[in-house]
Amino acid sequence: MANSLESEHPIKAYGYASRDTSGVLSPLTFSRRATGEKDVRFKVLYCGVCHSDLHFVKNEWGMTTYPLIPGHEIVGVVTEVGSKVDNFKVGDNVGVGCLVGSCKSCQSCTNDLENYCPKQILTYGSPYYDGTFTYGGYSDHMVADEHFILRWPKNLPLDSGSPLLCAGITTYSPLRHFGLDKPGLKVGVVGLGGLGHVAVKFAKAFGAEVTVFSTTPAKKQEALDGLKADHFIVSKDPEQMQSAAGSLDGIIDTVSATHPIAPLLSVLKPDGKLVLVGAPEKPLEIAAFSLIMGRKIVTGSAIGGLKETQEMLDFAAEHGITADIELIQIDYVNTAMERVLKSDVRYRFVIDVANSLKAP
Amino acid sequence: MAKSLESEHPIKAYGYAAHDTTGTFSPVTFSRRVTGEKDVRFKVLYCGVCHSDLHYAKNEWGVTTYPVIPGHEIVGVVTEVGSKVEKFKVGDKVGVGCLVGSCRSCESCSSDCEQFCPTQTLTYGVPNFDGTQAYGGYSDHMISDEHFVLRWPENLPLDSGAPLLCAGITTYSPLRYFGLDKPGMKVGVVGLGGLGHVAVKMAKAFGADVTVFSTTAAKKQEAIEGLKADHFINSRDEEEMKAAASTLDGIIDTVSGNHPIVPLLGALKPNGKLVLLGAPEKPVELAAFALILGRKIVAGSAIGGLKETQEMLDFSAKHGITADIELIPIDYVNTAMDRLLKSDVRYRFVIDVANSLKAE
């Protein structure tokens, strides 16, 4: 298997991969395609560790082909561009998020919503146009079609900005799409983790009055003092929940653990929206009446298109929004995954790839 | 009990009431208030039989106070108006739907969404604003505050138009609110009953391409030829459902029996909306991914505000939209309820109150 991966493509590459459902990552030598005329090739500097990486390395969603090299919050510096590349040159700082391909012709693609293209190609674990599998940012370098490369804003830090490429767009997009980006709106954020803490920052930047919902009372201080949320509610406390009844225009629910959503629906005003960005394993149960009374909405959102991702990065740079990160060496990644599982991180691990990933 | 009903208010009234959870109706003498300065008093001509009437009669929602006189699709002719009534005069044809009161000052009331007012007064079954019970249209006459009385459009039939006061607004409102009222939109309607058949007519009038989903294959002809739906899908047929995947902008789900909604979500395009109007007893189940992948919406809707209800009546008059009804004398109501339970009606019973309800 290692041999065929190395000879799959002409350019040698190396990274960390998981090989089975244990999810344990270890060094892997593989290969990447030559720089095509529309490709941008870049050295990876940093890569955020997203909880999705953990789901994929353990094949929890049943979609994984091993070996899997995760990583879709990738920031780097351009080393080569194809002959037809217009927007990037060697030496530019760039990012790649969750997508590296799409059909480019369907209604979603033509509306800058590549994330809803039925033929989208994920940055890792997906078959590419040439039939080979994609490998993500836990690796020395990446190559991607120009369309899927983000220009890195000048004053946005490379390390603490990298999680924006998934966590950022995943929370920015629904705040905008569902009209929760107007000053003075009352917005809830459920869960204070990688997604949640970025959601609070964006909502505040939009001028919202933000309420954080958490099952962990200890997170109150970080929510209010650290992240400048306006209110903090322990979601398992019926009295606190009752006091918030019918008060919110919208809620961004980042929690991927199974949890009841009926109490969250009761906190919404009429016409309020509950947006799920975490994906609990068990199906949700919703009493129809809780939607019918008050014309409430439950919906979901997944990342965003490339145009909006660029817009989000520029917005983040303008408003000084970055993730709160713990920078790690790549050989720490298995420990990091275990800590992610226990939510033991404030709030995103970022791998210092360039300084810790050594050629074999 | 009967004595206090009769003496509760100064003006004698008579109707049909259910007295216990058997839901069996029998004649009752009761009373109504005098005509206040903002009240409109009218003789009831017709009253539609809504499935909610049946739920209330049997106390299936646990909110019924007996005796209950249902009926919230009420059409009649004005017999008296209060001194400060401006919009109506004796002899006018009027309607009353599901609401007879609201606080008139909250955010919802001020934005013409009385249906979201937390202190709304329903037309029957629950206490009125003066603490006495409200009694509905299975009765000889009604009295209501002017604000909650609808002007009956001239060329809208009184009998077949009556069901619009609940079924009509309940389907019209979400088609408009969720933007499914643009010509060429692909709209699904689930269930072909009182709500469903009106939803098809409204959607067609908006210029939509309409697909009816039903578990009863035999309804195909009525759907296509009778109601002019464009397509008919047997929702239990996996292949037909698969063929409809990702084709619809929205779906109006009128079914109150328990049924799976995940296949309906599959029929939606990205950003599509599934609007629940019927309230199944069991919670609906859905995997968060079914919403996240495609940013799909599940929402609910209930009736509409008074302004929109008037707009709906005028729209129906303009487009020749009425319900398909079976006109019945009031003493047939118990049989009608039995048949309603078996969906044995095309598609709404309407009680010919004036011609069949006799004073005791």
TrEMBL record, chain A:
<dbReference type="GO" id="GO:0008270">
    <property type="term" value="F:zinc ion binding"/>
</dbReference>
<dbReference type="InterPro" id="IPR011032">
    <property type="entry name" value="GroES-like_sf"/>
</dbReference>
<comment type="similarity">
    <text>Belongs to the zinc-containing alcohol dehydrogenase family.</text>
</comment>
<dbReference type="Pfam" id="PF08240">
    <property type="entry name" value="ADH_N"/>
</dbReference>
<keyword id="KW-0479">Metal-binding</keyword>
<dbReference type="InterPro" id="IPR013154">
    <property type="entry name" value="ADH-like_N"/>
</dbReference>
<dbReference type="InterPro" id="IPR013149">
    <property type="entry name" value="ADH-like_C"/>
</dbReference>
<feature type="domain" description="Enoyl reductase (ER)">
    <location>
        <begin position="23"/>
        <end position="351"/>
    </location>
</feature>
<dbReference type="InterPro" id="IPR020843">
    <property type="entry name" value="ER"/>
</dbReference>
<dbReference type="GO" id="GO:0009809">
    <property type="term" value="P:lignin biosynthetic process"/>
</dbReference>
<dbReference type="GO" id="GO:0016616">
    <property type="term" value="F:oxidoreductase activity, acting on the CH-OH group of donors, NAD or NADP as acceptor"/>
</dbReference>
<keyword id="KW-0560">Oxidoreductase</keyword>
<dbReference type="Pfam" id="PF00107">
    <property type="entry name" value="ADH_zinc_N"/>
</dbReference>
<dbReference type="InterPro" id="IPR029752">
    <property type="entry name" value="D-isomer_DH_CS1"/>
</dbReference>
<dbReference type="InterPro" id="IPR002328">
    <property type="entry name" value="ADH_Zn_CS"/>
</dbReference>
<dbReference type="InterPro" id="IPR047109">
    <property type="entry name" value="CAD-like"/>
</dbReference>
<keyword id="KW-0862">Zinc</keyword>
<protein>
    <recommendedName>
        <fullName>Enoyl reductase (ER) domain-containing protein</fullName>
    </recommendedName>
</protein>
<dbReference type="InterPro" id="IPR036291">
    <property type="entry name" value="NAD(P)-bd_dom_sf"/>
</dbReference>
Automatic annotation (TrEMBL), chain B:
<dbReference type="GO" id="GO:0016616">
    <property type="term" value="F:oxidoreductase activity, acting on the CH-OH group of donors, NAD or NADP as acceptor"/>
</dbReference>
<keyword id="KW-0560">Oxidoreductase</keyword>
<dbReference type="Pfam" id="PF08240">
    <property type="entry name" value="ADH_N"/>
</dbReference>
<dbReference type="InterPro" id="IPR029752">
    <property type="entry name" value="D-isomer_DH_CS1"/>
</dbReference>
<dbReference type="InterPro" id="IPR002328">
    <property type="entry name" value="ADH_Zn_CS"/>
</dbReference>
<comment type="similarity">
    <text>Belongs to the zinc-containing alcohol dehydrogenase family.</text>
</comment>
<dbReference type="GO" id="GO:0009809">
    <property type="term" value="P:lignin biosynthetic process"/>
</dbReference>
<dbReference type="InterPro" id="IPR013149">
    <property type="entry name" value="ADH-like_C"/>
</dbReference>
<keyword id="KW-0479">Metal-binding</keyword>
<protein>
    <recommendedName>
        <fullName>Enoyl reductase (ER) domain-containing protein</fullName>
    </recommendedName>
</protein>
<dbReference type="InterPro" id="IPR047109">
    <property type="entry name" value="CAD-like"/>
</dbReference>
<dbReference type="InterPro" id="IPR036291">
    <property type="entry name" value="NAD(P)-bd_dom_sf"/>
</dbReference>
<dbReference type="GO" id="GO:0008270">
    <property type="term" value="F:zinc ion binding"/>
</dbReference>
<dbReference type="InterPro" id="IPR011032">
    <property type="entry name" value="GroES-like_sf"/>
</dbReference>
<keyword id="KW-0862">Zinc</keyword>
<dbReference type="InterPro" id="IPR020843">
    <property type="entry name" value="ER"/>
</dbReference>
<dbReference type="Pfam" id="PF00107">
    <property type="entry name" value="ADH_zinc_N"/>
</dbReference>
<dbReference type="InterPro" id="IPR013154">
    <property type="entry name" value="ADH-like_N"/>
</dbReference>
<feature type="domain" description="Enoyl reductase (ER)">
    <location>
        <begin position="23"/>
        <end position="351"/>
    </location>
</feature>
